[in-house]
Amino acid sequence: MIAEGDKSYVLFPLGGKRFALPAETVTELARPDSVQTFPHRTPLLTGVLVRRGRIVPVCDVAQVLVGPAAPARKFYLIANCNLESRQELTAVPVTGECELASGALVPRTGQEPPYIRGLLMMGDEIVEIVALEKLIAVEEPV
Amino acid sequence: MKSLKQKRPQPPQPAREDMIVFAVGGFKFAIAAGAVKEIRGMEDLHAFTLGGISGQIAKLKYTLERGGTTYFVVDAARHFQLPASHASRVMVLRNAPTGVLVDSTDRIMEISSLHALPRAFTHEERGWYRGLAVVNGTVVPVVNHNAFLNRAELEILRSGLERVRGVVTV
Questions:
Q1: Which residues of A touch B119 (CB under 8 A)?
Q2: Average pLDDT of the residues in B149-168
Q3: How confident is the model at residue B168 (pLDDT cuts 50, 70, 90)?
Q4: Taking Cα atoms as reference points, which of A1, A15, A22, A4 lies closest to residue A120?
Q5: For the purposes of burial, counting CB atoms within 10 Å of the CB of A111, is it exposed (0-12), middle (13-18) or buried (19 or more)?
Q6: pLDDT score for B126
């Protein structure tokens, strides 16, 4: 049962940590597919996937969220991202299976980086809710 | 997981167009066939040395004289910021005094639609490419041929060349 004020989130693992995206933005959890690459200079993008005739950029957010030591990514979480007032699909490589959960967003304390929208309290675990459009804009991986 | 309503994505532009597929540094690219006047070997290229300008436009490697026109030949590997590659062909562009040094040219293919470059790509590639084509499941970037040497770069080159040749234009 979802309490009033609670929202649904998709929790995704990156190594030993979990992060969250609002469930309404997530469209699909896809099996690994062949990422296609071509020359470009946008830091976190590793290539594109072709999904049902559409071209979906792949944004390796693990480089920023957990650093270069993140284990191999197993799935792609495909989510809508608001870029320049338009919704575009973006594939986020994740390291394991995802979970749908609900909870109330705890506002940012101001200490978090700008790509963290808020926090979710899941028992003892604090899960950071990611603002994908801000994460994509990060210029330098940690 | 519930799939939710979303704004309709921009459909690919439905326009049939012939493209020349070429390779640079292990990557395949496509260029509008109509933008290419001639594909030739590396003969008759002259190393580009124009005091001061050579350093400003580092991707410019050679010049080529054809029919009274000086073509400025750009190294595509430098343009796309790739490691040095093994260039063997020059694509001479139509309607611009520009040549493009590439590793090889492959075939002419017809594409039926051009996908916009996703907006997540925000850097130089937005100028490099007109869009992306999908050919038998493979994504091939379609280059913006006007970006190999842009207007400002061509103006610098023209004025530099005139200065060297002592030609005064009114």
A1: 83-84, 86, 88
A2: 78
A3: very low
A4: A22
A5: exposed
A6: 96
Contact B120 A136 (CB under 8 A): yes
Q: For the beta carbon of residue B68, count every other beta carbon within 10 angstroms.
A: 5
What would the DSSP string read from start to end of chain B?
A: ------PPPPPPB---EEEEEEEETTEEEEEEGGGEEEEE-STTEEE---TTHHHHSTTEEEEEEETTEEEEEEEHHHHTTPPP----EEEEETTSSEEEEESEEEEEEEES-BBPPPTT--STHHHHEEEEEEETTEEEEEE-GGGSS-HHHHHHHHHHHHHHHT----
A88 touches chain B (CB under 8 A): yes
Reduce the DSSP state of residue A2 to 3 states and report it.
coil
> For the ranges A46-60, A109-123, B46-60, B104-118, which has the lowest average pLDDT?
B46-60
Is it the case that residue B170 has pLDDT exceeding 70?
Answer: no
Domain limits, chain B = 17-165
State how far the Cα of B96 lies from the Cα of A68, in Å rounded to an integer: 44
| Whole-structure pTM value | 0.86
Res B4: pLDDT: 46
Query: What CA–CA distance (Å, rounded) separates A45 from A67?
Result: 15
Q: Which member of A40, A54, A86 has the closest CB to residue B123?
A: A40
Least CB–CB distance from B81: residue in A39, A50, A86: A39
Q: What is the pLDDT of residues B3-30, one digit of tens each?
A: 444 455 566 666 789 999 999 999 999 9
What was the pLDDT predicted at B162? 78
Average pLDDT, chain A: 89
Q: Give dist(CA A57, CA B31) in Å, integer.
A: 22
